[in-house]
Amino acid sequence: MESKLSAAASESKVPKSSGHVEHVEQGAYEAIYHILAVLFVAMLMLTNIIGTKLFVVSPDLPFLGPVIGWIASIVGTLFPDQAGSAITLTAGIVTYPLTFLITDIVSETYGRRRADRMVWLGFGASLTMLGVLEVARRLTPSPFWQVPSAFADVFRPDLLTVAADGTVTASAEASQAAYLFTFNAPGTLLFASMTAYVVAQLIDNRLFHFCRRLTGGKALWFRNNVSTMFSQLADTIIVNGIFLHFYWKLEWPEIWAVIIAVYVLKGCIALVDTPLCYVGVWWAARATRRNRS
Q1: Is residue 6 part of a domain?
Q2: For residue 20, is it within any domain?
Q3: Domain extent at residue 104
Q4: What is the pLDDT of residues 8-51, one digit of tens each?
Q5: Closest CA to 270 of 207, 217, 218
Q6: With a threshold of 0.90, does the pTM exceed it?
Q7: How many C-beta atoms lie closer than 10 Å to residue 13's C-beta?
Q8: Given phi > 0 = left and psi -120 to 50 = alpha, else beta, which region is 23?
Q9: 215-260 pLDDT, tens per residue?
Q10: Does residue 130 fall inside a structural domain?
């Protein structure tokens, strides 16, 4: 009888399962890794969307003007046909260099394995984005989905409609054409980007840890810049070579002019973001120590 009572008492102390997975507090160390991984994936996916745009930068740009003029002189020396005061870049330069900064912070703080895991998470997210974009492109447009009057005048006259109040809009056919154009290139860009991405990020991780062993864990600035320079070179050649040649049908002298301009600017950005790498590693370490104390 006593054994039955003790068994019943022990059973009453065991909390009943609610069917939910029990929450486990992971602390600042894991929380910071998740924050960095989310930023990494976000920057990567944004690069694959905005990177289809080619834009021109002139030496008149504030702060960066001298650097742009210097890069333009390099391009003009190597390719006289492409000589000029302005340079052509891809819009992905706005976001993509940040992925290498994040990779180096994660490699320094969490090790190569966690950095590689983040790289493959970004790869999977990008493939998912490509699949969703392809489904969205194939959806039949509604006749109510028309281009607003502020943008309608760039379309052919036969695609324009005039409302009773005189407002000019472009038809759903025009909207669909603009949508297809905007999200047509990401397919080719994503193939080029993912090929370059996997190669470059894995090179970055391995070179970073090779340099770390070479310096005995010292000189973070050295491994940050060496790994970034080589990985960015591989990335810039692969992604622009594929994308600009197979999608935009540019000639190779034009492609090499873009590659050199983009790579030199990426190198300048890598030098500038070195202090940010130190700040990121310090922040992760400080938050982890605070959490453990």
Answers
A1: no
A2: no
A3: 28-292
A4: 444 444 455 455 545 455 678 888 999 999 999 999 999 988 98
A5: 207
A6: no
A7: 6
A8: beta
A9: 998 999 999 999 999 999 999 999 999 989 988 889 999 999 999 9
A10: yes
DSSP letters, the chain, are -HHHHHHHHHHHHSPPP-SSPPP---HHHHHHHHHHHHHHHHHHHHHHHHTT-EEEE-TTSTTTHHHHHHHHHHHHHH-GGG-SS-EEEEGGGGTHHHHHHHHHHHHHHH-HHHHHHHHHHHHHHHHHHHHHHHHHHHSPPPTT--B-HHHHTTS-GGGEEE-TTS-EEE-HHHHHHHHHHHHHHHHHHHHHHHHHHHHHHHHHHHHHHHHHHHTTT--HHHHHHHHHHHHHHHHHHHHHHHHHHHTS---HHHHHHHHHHHHHHHHHHHHHTHHHHHHHHHHHHHHHHHHH-
Tell me, what amino acid is at 89? L
- The pair of three-digit structure tokens given for residue 26, joined into one six-digit string: 């992971």
The number of folded domains in the chain is 1
Determine, yes or no, domain membership for 60: yes
